[in-house]
Amino acid sequence: MNALRIFIVDDETPARTRIKALLADIAPDLPNEVVGEAADGVEALQRLADQPADVALLDIRMPRMDGVELARHLAGATQPPAVVFTTAYDQYAVQAFELNAVDYLVKPVRAQRLAVALEKARHAGPPSREALARLATEARRHLSVNERGRILLVPLTEILYFKAELKYVTVRTREREYLLDESLTHLEQEFAARFVRVHRNCLVAREAIAGFEKAAEEDSETRWQVLLSGLDERLPVSRRQWPAVKAAFADQRRR
Description:
- This protein is of the alpha/beta class.
- The chain has 2 domains: 4-135, Rossmann fold, CATH 3.40.50; 159-254, CATH 2.40.50.1020.
- The protein is 31% helix and 33% strand.
- It contains 8 helices and 15 strands.
- The chain has helices at 13-26, 41-48, 67-74, 90-96, 111-124, 129-135, 184-190, 242-254, and strands at residues 4-9, 32-38, 55-59, 82-87, 104-106, 142-147, 150-155, 161-165, 168-172, 177-180, 195-199, 202-205, 209-216, 222-228, 231-237.
- Strands 2-1-3-4-5 form a 5-stranded parallel β-sheet, sandwiched between helices. The chain has a 5-stranded antiparallel β-sheet with strand order 10-9-8-12-11.
- Helix 1 links the parallel strand 1 (4-9) and strand 2 (32-38).
- The chain is elongated and about 80 Å long.
């Protein structure tokens, strides 16, 4: 049996040390190798890009990026690891993880339960994106883009707009564009507090709206366009969305 390659993610050093000790204890029956560890999701993504793993043991509550968000990003990898969550929140785990058939360990982790979870993960593979989305208790703070075989993180605070084009969504920051394989409708639902729909194919960050200008169409009818902070590009506002966009801009200015 090939040794199971395991990556540990937990913001508490003693918790990572305990997991490594338990993995050593069960190694005679379940050969395993700890290939890396990280203190949060951002660090884990960077390290896993160079060090593939069969199973990732992910703490749920961590700074910068929690375990559920990390798992959602890992699901987009070329060869995503299987995932087992660790949590001190028993009630949340029972209600959410069992409902979505995603395995978890309640702290303090026990050796026998860890062995069972790893054996299950070996055969089950990574959880689906849909199951992970249902587990999320808050919106993601980053979006992940698969580019040249690596996962790039795009902080949500840097995104000016999303625009649906063919089967992809273009993500625009001040520096560049990215292609995202996600639905514009799902992005609107998840990030409704931060983005407003200006057109059927475009969501704009509320904080990025600098103002509006009129643009005459070929039919001589006047339409509005969104002006963006830090970007020369103008985005058309549909007649249907104009009242909501104008209200969003007014609300943003009052804050």
